[in-house]
């Protein structure tokens, strides 16, 4: 067969993908497709969102407990103890990301996620009984170990169920659910502090104890209801499962997992795009963690009372949830990623400048709204952008783990540049966060240029992208 004919076939594949919005769906009743997708949505997204909300609360409630009296009891005001206790969680969180994702398929999502949730719930519970700063750090290390595989597993599982331009709304939906609940955790924690002295236990310790118990109970719920991968799912009938797999195969040709090899591992690990997305994810999580760990402290430093600081912490998260879903809907609707991520970077920068440099507390507080709105939407946005532009589940497992591990580096960055010495405005931390946003804008520009160029070559029959004929990058 001639090379010219090969090129014509490649161009035909591309045109079929571009012109047929739902090629695999055409064989099924649209009502059947929509009903099945709704079943998947309701079975998966609320529960995973709730579990991730608990994960966010358990990793970031240190700032709330500090304001509630832990600082005095454990002497976290000495040197950089608070920053170290916050940061040390991320070391095992980063180290165990890739190994966790590699065993996820072998172990199965239900067992894997249950072990993660119950394990970090026990670590959270233990934090309520620590007598000193050193043991607090030990519990934070255990928390990082058990949470390490959780978020990449969630992203991996969700992205195997949907077509590329359906993913960001779903990622945003479970993330939205988590940040709303996480935002109101400060008010819940404030209520728990009224248990101060009950059973001879301090109010801040009760925050860890009660939230740890809830987490362990949710681990049991995960065992009962968390869905597995599409090819292993049991809550769908055979026709529904076949339809889901056919949609994924038509969309990106990776409905069936391909075996992992060392060659595939290293190709995915050293792919420049893996690290481009990883640095973008770091740049997104850095301000999100900064708000999570320091919002209550910053608000308290504006002159608000302790009680008011707890209450006011919640509302920037509500705004972030609305913004997050709006941009996710816009991205899926337009089938564009980079431009909407860039818009959120600009919003985040504006918020950081307002919080850092405005003189009026109300304006500084409004800056936290903008910062959280810009940062939070980028977290699912970067993950969707990445998942749209790869095929093969082996590559998805490795690259997703690397990217989310770099999110842990963003957590380390946030907890170390917002230093106690810079309280209450944390100006060096503000500028470090702005630098992350500018870095992300540069990477978005580079990715867009390279993707555009390669798509043009693929349309001309000069290149096959991701070893998948007809595949085009999402820009």
Automatic annotation (TrEMBL):
Topological relation to the membrane, as annotated: Multi-pass membrane protein
Full protein name: MFS general substrate transporter
Segments traversing the membrane: 44-62, 82-104, 111-130, 142-162, 174-192, 204-226, 273-301, 307-331, 338-359, 365-385, 397-418, 430-453
Alphabetized GO MF terms: transmembrane transporter activity
Taxonomic lineage from the root: Eukaryota, Fungi, Dikarya, Basidiomycota, Agaricomycotina
Keywords: Membrane, Transmembrane, Transmembrane helix, Transport
Domain Major facilitator superfamily (MFS) profile: 44-456
Protein species of origin: Coprinopsis marcescibilis
InterPro entries assigned: MFS (IPR011701), MFS_dom (IPR020846), MFS_trans_sf (IPR036259)
Localization annotation: Membrane
Any GO CC annotation of this UniProt entry: membrane
